[in-house]
Amino acid sequence: MEIDKLVYKPYIAGNTLNAKRMRNNPTPAEDKMWQDFLKHRPWGYKFTRQKPIGPFILDFYCSELFLAVEVDGEIHQSRKEYDQERTAYLVNCGISVARYRNNEIFNDSDCVYYDLLQFIYELEFDIKNKEN
User: Fold this and answer.
1) What is the DSSP pairing of strand 48-53 with strand 96-101?
2) pTM here?
3) CB 68 within 8 Å of CB 100
4) Of 51, 99, 40, which is closest to residue 73 (Cα–Cα)?
5) Which neighbouring-strand residues pair with 100?
6) Can you list the pairs that 77-86 forms with residues at least 24 positions away whose Cβ atoms lie under 8 Å?
7) Following DSSP, what letter does each residue of 16-49 receive, concatenated?
8) Does residue 20 lie in a domain region?
9) H or E element: which one contains 121?
C-alpha cells in the first residue's frame, strides 16, 4: 500500500468547531497529558490539541514528527474497531500513533513519559535516516 504522506488533509468543516469545543473541555486525562508532558514543547517539538485531520480529531498532534498522541478513556473499550480504522487511516497518511490509556496517564505517568520519549527518539532516527 502506498503511503498518502500528509502535506495537507482536508477535514470536515464541522470538525473545527468540535475541536475548539473539545480543546476548551478536555477530559481529565487529556488535561494531565497536556499539562504534564506536551504543553511546553517537550524535547523541542510543538504539539497541538484536538487537531482535525481528515474525518477525525486527534487528541494531540506534532506536525514536525507526523505524530498523533491519543488518550483512550473508557469509551474506547467499546469502539476498538473504530480505533483500528482510525489508526489505519492515520498510518496511511504517514502519521505515527502513540496511544495511552487513562489509567496509564494517572497511575504510571513516568512510564508514559519514557515511552513517549522513546517513541519520539525512534521517529527522529527514522526521519534522519530517510534524509540520508
Assistant:
1) unpaired
2) 0.85
3) no
4) 99
5) 71
6) 86/56
7) HHHHHHHHHS--HHHHHHIIIIITT-GGG---EE
8) yes
9) helix 109-131
Q: Is residue 8 part of a domain?
A: no
Q: What is the CATH number of the domain that holds 48?
A: 3.40.960.10
> In which band, very low, low, confident or very high, does the pLDDT at 122 lie, cut at 50, 70 and 90?
very high
Q: Name the grid cell of 82.
A: 473504530
Number of other residues whose CB lies within 10 A of the CB of residue 84: 10
Cα(92)–Cα(111) distance, rounded to whole angstroms? 28
CA distances from 13 to 33, 48, 56, 58, 111 (A): 27, 18, 11, 15, 37
Contact 85, 76 (CB under 8 A): no
Please give the grid coordinates belonging to residue 122.
Answer: 525512534
- Average pLDDT for the chain: 86
